[in-house]
Amino acid sequence: MTIELRKLHQVWLDHRAAQNTDFQNIGLDELSNSIVGTGPFYYYIIDFYDMSLSHVSPGIEEIHGLDIDQVTFNDVLAPIHPDDIDFVVKAEAFLTHFFSENISREKLTKIHFNFYQ
After folding, report:
1. Residues 5-43: pLDDT tens digits?
2. Within the chain, what is the greatest distance between any pair of CA atoms?
3. At 86, is the pLDDT very low, low, confident or very high (cuts 50, 70, 90)?
4. What is the percent of the chain with per-residue pLDDT over 90, rounded to a whole number?
5. Distance from chain centroid for Cα 53
6. Considering 26, 27, 36, 50, which has the largest number of Cβ atoms within 10 A of its Cβ?
7. Are the CB atoms for 68 and 57 separated by under 8 Å?
8. What is the residue-wise DSSP string for 83-107?
9. Whole-prediction pTM value?
């Protein structure tokens, strides 16, 4: 792993949960059906406890040629251009700080995406 990607991992490691989280309550059908795009897209859920991916959509294979059953988070991060790493690190640091300061950890692990209210 490059030094740049280590910086990115460190942002997430600094704010990870003390244990694995349970994402069974997320309505992925509602989330995926609510995404409006003009081209190919993919989605996945990252468990920052162990940097594992779940609920990986088939679009990741179409776009990046990655096997949805074997893809790792580092596979997803690898295409980030080296000149963009510092920006991505700053953006992720901002988001993790925002969520950790404004939403309790208990609520973060129980978020429901419901776009049909």
Report:
1. 888 888 888 877 665 666 555 566 555 555 555 677 888
2. 44
3. very high
4. 31
5. 8
6. 26
7. yes
8. GGHHHHHHHHHHHHHHHHHHS-HHH
9. 0.57
Q: Which residues pair with 12 in a beta bridge?
A: none
Looking at residue 9, its amino acid is: H
State both tokens at 29. Answer: 């059908």
Q: At what angle do helices 3-13 and 85-102 cross, to 10 degrees?
A: 0
Characterize 39-77 residue by residue with b for buried, 16 or more Cβ atoms within 10 angstroms of its Cβ, and e for exposed. eeebebeebbeeeebeebbebbeeeeebeeeebebeebb
User: Is 28 strand, coil or helix?
Assistant: helix
The pLDDT tens digits for 64-74 are 999 999 999 99
